[in-house]
Amino acid sequence: MTQDWDLTMRMVLQRREAYLSEHYIGLHFTVVSLALGTAGVTAALLLAAGTLPADYAVLFGFLWATTVLATITAFGAATVGSVLLPSRLPSISDLVLPLLIAICEFLLFAILAPQAGSDTAPRRAVITWYFLMAAFCALAAVAIARVGVIFRSARYSPDIRAHMHWYRRQLRLDALGATTTASLSLAAGFLHLGASQVPAWVSCGITTIIAALLVLASLGHGRVSNYWQAALDGHLGR
């Protein structure tokens, strides 16, 4: 007599095959959708308010665009790397880290909304933005390190082992880039906090460097995607 079970170990094992990668992809799709919605609202408020001094208006534009780049970079890393995650269930760090990064993304946009009150409000927003960017990049570095731990403990078949070793080297470069960007953002935050006034062109210059580092990271994700596409095509004999 055949028993129709509602749940079997085989069913759970089949679900586990892509559970971790689907978790990361699904979560980041949701996060980026909400973050871009917040970006649109913030941009509309900045354009409609017209209360910022001219130099701050330009700087806030730089900060807003850099936040968009940060969102794109985080999303690119998740979408490119998630497909390579091994079969396993997510741990608590796999749940918490993406959520903390998402909170930083929302705050990076929200802090740029027109500031009411004293004349020092825009300055406080700029200082807070740099510290938030430092936190965002530091969390990204921790998340990359976490992924590296997952890959290091995984077992690879011979046909993918060399490719995974290459990818793990790329992850170390990503972690270095995220740490560098976090350090620069943190230094910028303390610079603006300690100085009574920082010229807008200095702030724009620092923000441009941060944006350039984010662009380099995104280009690196594109290189990883191209590498794996070529590897898969080669495996399929195309």
TrEMBL record:
What sections of the protein cross the membrane?
Answer: 24-50, 56-85, 97-117, 129-151, 171-194, 200-219
Q: Which top-level group of life is the source organism from?
A: Bacteria
Q: Is Membrane one of the keywords UniProt gives this record?
A: yes
| UniProt keyword list | Membrane, Transmembrane, Transmembrane helix
Q: What's the protein here called?
A: Uncharacterized protein
